[in-house]
Amino acid sequence: MDIFLLKSLNKKAVLLKNFKKLLSKLRNTFVRRLLADGPITLSQIQTESQLFQLSVRQLREILTTNRVDYRGLIEKSELFEKVVRLWNEIRSAKGADNLPDEELCKICMNAPVNCVILECGHMVSCVECGRQLAECPICRQFVVRVVRTFKA
Ligand SMILES: [Zn+2]
Ligand SMILES: [Zn+2]
């Protein structure tokens, strides 16, 4: 066989092996986190079945960090439903380039407006910018809470 071909095949095999190693490492981290009931972020989750493995505490954590209101929800299935919705919303979010200006966060101009400021009720920013606000940029009212909004 051609020596160059052989070399390149060999290289491919090594690459594939490294890739597989990396993949199993990633999977192990995820599993380890799950077992330890440690902090999980939605970006670490690739499939809905992985969501299904989360504990109630992890579901609550995800909802809290994403400013999703879950007061009054007690059943795990209710929390799970909210997390799935959030996960789908985040995954299907259009890139900022495709959004009309009025739907863009007025602070970073880089994400859709997806939260409401309480108590004033103004919708001006994305969750990431909203959680850093001390007062509403429109009416200057004190920000009590920022709650994520969902499109129907
Ligand atoms: Zn923003
Ligand atoms: Zn306001």
Automatic annotation (TrEMBL):
InterPro entries: RING-FYVE_E3_ubiquitin-ligase (IPR051728), RNF34_RFFL_HeH (IPR055111), Znf_RING (IPR001841), Znf_RING/FYVE/PHD (IPR013083). PANTHER family: CASPASE REGULATOR, RING FINGER DOMAIN-CONTAINING, E3 UBIQUITIN-PROTEIN LIGASE RIFIFYLIN-LIKE PROTEIN. One of its GO terms (biological process) is negative regulation of extrinsic apoptotic signaling pathway via death domain receptors. GO terms for molecular function: ubiquitin protein ligase activity; zinc ion binding. One of its GO terms (cellular component) is plasma membrane. CDD domains: RING-HC_CARP. Keywords: Metal-binding, Zinc, Zinc-finger. This is RING-type domain-containing protein. Pfam families: RNF34L-like_3rd, zf-C3HC4_3. Residues 105-140 form the RING-type domain. The keyword Metal-binding applies. It comes from the Eukaryota.
